[in-house]
Amino acid sequence: MTVKQVEFDQRVTRLNKKHAKLSRGYRATMRKDGLVVMKPQRVKSAVPAKVLLMCLFGLFAFKTFLMTSLGTSAYEFRVDSLAQGTTVEKAGAWVMQIDPVSGFLAAQIDRFTS
Question: Is-annotated flag, keyword Membrane (predicted)?
Answer without folding.
Answer: yes
